[in-house]
Specification:
The protein is mainly β and 705 residues long. The chain is 5% helix and 50% strand. It folds into 7 domains: 108 residues, Immunoglobulin-like (Sandwich), CATH 2.60.40; 96 residues, Sandwich (Immunoglobulin-like); 89 residues, Immunoglobulins (Immunoglobulin-like, Sandwich), CATH 2.60.40; 81 residues, Carboxypeptidase-like, regulatory domain (Immunoglobulin-like); 82 residues, Sandwich (Immunoglobulin-like), CATH 2.60.40; 82 residues, Immunoglobulin-like, CATH 2.60.40; 93 residues, Sandwich (Immunoglobulin-like). Strands 22, 23, 26, 29 and 30 form a 5-stranded mixed beta sheet that branches. Strands 40-39-42-43-45 form a 5-stranded antiparallel beta sheet, with no helix packed on it. The chain has a 4-stranded antiparallel beta sheet with strand order 3-2-5-6, with no helix packed on it.
């Protein structure tokens, strides 16, 4: 009884949805385009498109051609009800005929709450059917809705018969009229230069739909969107195309795609010992567009056919062509120019050299006679782009490392890719090579005057250099009048201190060399503070924005976030030159000031629309080079934006956290900046300038040789 009841329920649902039956579009059966279509006739230019009045006349009131049943795959379950408002839709096709079945998706994004929280977007979904094409849909709430309508009869799964409207509810009484355009049908034939049908040719429509020609060269698209459509056919490396302008519901059945006369490329690949190179991947290129690829047979032979007349590059490489996304693919590719003539065979002979075998390099890293445990070590080989030649290892508890280099030759080691190199090795062509690394260090002693113990002394690395193996900063808490930092790697540093009362000592800069001992004096003065309000260009408070203070030498001095009224306070700041930075999204601002002892400054910061710049570093041949990139403002001070993003490479095996060929600086205040880059391997320096404009993203390429 349960099954009988279920069947009755399904039958009732189908009766409610069903208003007609689906029939295929009229036309000839699969096969040649027509009984009189031979090679000569098929080669004639295609007939012009139907005029609008002819299409209207042909379409007529053919209600049975619009399927009225939703299959199980086409039905969508009802989703959500967020209110009791309704919307009445009158849906017609481009002929003015009612559309009997529609699928509806509606979206509503409520306004943010008082605390700035964004509520979740509401989503309604319905499958509705009505012979009159008039649908009353309920479940809406007040506000603006984006409604997407689609008709299953018009190929909705491929985006046909789809329309999006925006409506404000509650809506005025009456109908909301929506027009859904019918898709077009295109049937045609692919021919060669002699008018012979070509089977198995892939035909692409606007890069998102494809069909394949049958044994008669015939292809058919049953549901294409109206408008401009380009049909592209590909046969090996050969390409042919035709452009159409489709009206809604059009039926074109005589479209011809003809390939022009083509030639052929026969080639052979040999090794450096003049032996046949079997199994070598070969690619046919037009510029840098890959048209076709193949692999040499046991005799080192390869063939490309058909190839349209023109100039090409034939390339061979010792690698799988699925890996050709690597930046050094073009450098390792052995190429030869080829000119192809119609109806002729061009012969090519190539010789390639197999790349050198990789080398496993290993050893230990020590600092001041002790192993560097659980750190990181990077190695970049010279002689090519850094992106593919970088390797990464994790030091174990004994300071030991092991990694596999791409090839022998000079190698530069880094603790971080943005820091100076720690060692250089010339690796011979062997299977394994040991290279131990000893890190030079020095020490810095800070003499503290005027502070109330206990005092915290901070050592901060300038220009993104490390203090020791892993950290950019280090601190010592002391009750004495001095603090000594040992095992500090060479570089430029800034020191400051904070005592128990919250007073801050003015920063002091020091440059440390290998095996050097430096002493600096830090004197305490009364601290200062900065309070203020952050507003947008219209004067409205900006809540939840990040506000930070930088002391001299870009030493971080504190950060906070604005409250709901845009207020902020930064306290316990050292007197002297201070830069206040604020950022939220792409809006930003910067404010430079000089703080006096014990002062409490009050400022109003106005956010502006920021810009961004992507910095790329290459050599004179255009190959990407790993580099440390710095950004300086108009006063030649290093600018540290609150929003920065670095581009990393994941193409090299076991590579992590490596900033290599690009740096992106976002949310920059408008103005002119200086960009300085130093390559990681050779240490070459490049400099340039860029003008940042509001809302724009610039790309700056520096050439470092």
């Amino acid at each position: 009884m349960f099954l009988v009841g279920l069947a009755a329920l399904v039958a009732c649902g189908l009766l409610w949805l069903g208003h007609g039956e689906s029939r295929p579009l009229p036309g000839p059966t699969p096969g040649p385009l027509g009984p009189s279509t031979g090679p000569e006739q098929a080669a004639e230019p295609q007939s012009p498109l139907l005029a609008p009045d002819q299409q209207e006349a042909d379409a007529g009131p053919q209600r049975a051609e619009i399927p009225a049943d939703l299959s199980a795959a086409e039905q969508i379950p009802p989703r959500d009800t967020v209110g009791d408002l309704s919307l009445t839709l009158r849906v017609r096709d481009d002929r003015g005929m009612p559309v009997e079945l529609i699928l509806l998706h509606a979206y509503h994004t409520p306004a943010p709450l008082e605390d700035g929280t964004q509520p979740v977007t509401s989503h309604l979904a319905r499958s509705v059917g009505e012979a009159s094409g008039i649908f009353e849909v309920t479940g809406f709430c007040e506000g603006e809705w984006r409604v997407i309508l689609s008709a299953p009869a018009f190929g909705w799964r491929r985006g046909r018969g789809r329309e999006m409207i925006t409506v404000l509810l509650p809506h005025d009484p009456g109908f909301l009229d929506v027009v859904l355009a019918r898709p077009a049908t295109v049937r045609g034939q692919v021919l060669d230069a002699d008018g012979k049908p070509l089977a198995g040719v892939r035909v692409l429509a606007n890069l998102n739909e494809s069909e394949q020609s049958d044994e008669y060269g015939v292809f058919e698209f049953s549901s294409l969107a109206s408008g401009s459509v380009t049909l592209r056919a590909s046969l090996g490396p050969a390409r042919a195309e035709t452009e159409l302008n489709l009206l809604p519901g059009a039926e074109l059945r005589d479209v011809i795609i003809r390939f022009p006369a083509a030639g052929r490329i026969d080639g052979w690949v040999f090794t450096a010992q003049n032996e046949a190179a079997a199994g070598i991947d070969v690619v046919l290129l037009s510029g840098r567009d890959k048209l076709a690829s193949t692999r040499t047979n046991e005799f080192g032979e390869f063939i490309f056919e058909p190839v349209l007349p023109g100039e090409y590059l034939v390339g061979a490489i010792f690698m799988d062509l699925s890996e050709d996304s690597g930046p050094d693919f073009w450098e390792r590719l052995h190429t030869q120019k080829v000119a192809v003539q119609a109806g002729e065979t061009t012969e090519v002979t190539m010789q390639i050299v197999k790349p050198e075998s990789p080398v496993r390099i290993f050893g230990t890293v020590t600092m001041a006679g002790e192993p560097v445990a659980h750190g990181h070590l990077y190695a970049i080989s010279e002689g090519g782009p850094a992106l593919e030649k970088a390797r990464y290892a994790v030091l174990d508890e004994n300071g030991s490392y092991s990694m596999e280099l791409v090839s022998p030759g000079p190698v530069v080691f880094y603790q971080k890719t943005s820091s100076p190199p720690v060692s250089v090795a010339d690796v011979p062509p062997v299977a394994e090579y040991r290279h131990d690394i000893t890190i030079p260090t020095g020490s810095i002693t800070a003499l503290v005057k005027g502070g109330k113990p206990p005092v915290v002394v901070l050592l901060h690395a300038v220009e993104n250099l490390p203090v020791d193996w892993e950290r950019r900063s280090s601190s010592i808490r002391t009750t004495d009048t001095q603090a000594t930092f040992t095992q500090v790697m060479p570089g430029r540093f800034a020191l400051t201190a904070r005592d128990d009362t919250g007073r801050v000592a003015s920063p002091h800069e020091v440059v440390l060399g290998a095996d050097q001992e430096q002493t600096v004096t830090l004197e305490f003065t009364a601290t200062a503070s900065v309070s203020g309000t952050l507003v947008d260009p219209e004067g409205r408070p900006v809540p939840e924005a990040t506000v930070a203070a930088l002391a001299e030498h870009a030493v971080p001095a504190g950060s906070t976030r604005t409250d709901a009224q845009g207020r902020f306070t930064l306290g316990d700041l050292a007197p002297g030159k201070t830069t206040i930075l604020a950022s939220k999204g792409q809006q930003c601002c910067t404010h430079a000031c000089r703080l006096e002892e014990g002062s409490a400054a009050d400022v109003e910061l106005v956010m502006v629309e920021g810009g961004s710049v992507l910095v790329q570093v290459v050599d004179s041949a255009g190959r990407a080079q790993g580099a440390n990139v710095r950004l300086l403002d108009a006063a030649q001070r290093e600018y540290v934006p609150l929003s920065t993003s670095d581009s990393y490479s994941s193409s090299a095996k076991n590579l992590a956290e490596v900033q290599l060929s690009r740096s992106s600086f976002d949310a920059l205040p408008p103005g002119r900046y200086t960009i300085r880059a130093r390559t990681l391997v050779a240490g070459n320096v490049a400099e340039g300038s860029v003008l940042i404009e509001a809302g724009e993203r610039k790309i700056k390429t520096l050439i470092a040789d």
